[in-house]
Amino acid sequence: MKRQLLLFIAIHLIGFPWCLGQGSPVDKQESPPTSPPVARAVRVTLAPVLDGDVLNDPAWSSVEPITGFWQTNPYEGQPASEETEVRIVFDDQTLYVSVVCYDRDPSGIIIA
User: What's the pTM?
Assistant: First the structure.
């Protein structure tokens, strides 16, 4: 029996202008990480509901978010100017990835 891998990315946008290059500069005194981050997928028995509501879905609530992202542009190696949380869960058939992006000034979000 052949298994199929489906990747679903649930993005809950709480602002993301930093993705468009509008983020504010960060403190240049912080040093880059000494080792790469580790992401772990968590097995769940109850699949997430695919409605974009990551923060209120019980399937995501027990998963420790991946945080502490670093920039590649415009300040390579510096901490991200805005907070981002990524969670990864899977069941017997599907791998789910959620991304929650925060922004201090959500009024600047450009929706095309």
Answer: 0.66
